Amino acid sequence: MNTTELQRIKQRYNIVGNSDGLNHALDVALQVAPTDLSVLIVGESGVGKEIIPRLIHDNSPRRREKYFAINCGSIPEGTIDSELFGHEKGSFTGAIGESEGYFGITDKGTIFLDEVGELPLATQARLLRVLETGEYIRVGGTKIMKTDVRIVAATNVNIRKAIREGRFREDLYYRLNTIPIQMPPLRDRGEDILLLFRLFAMKMAEKYRLPKISLTDEAKQLMLSYKWPGNVRQLKNITEQMSVLSPSREISGEILSHYIPHDPESTELAPITKGGNHSYENERELLYKILYELRGNVSNLRRDMSSLRKQIDEARGLNGATGFQTPIIAPTKPAMPGLQPSSLQPQPLDAEAELIEAEEEDGDLNLTSLGRQMVEKALRMANGNRKKAATALGISDRTLYRRIKQYGL
Question: Fewest C-beta atoms under 10 Å: which of 29, 52, 132, 213?
Answer without folding.
Answer: 132
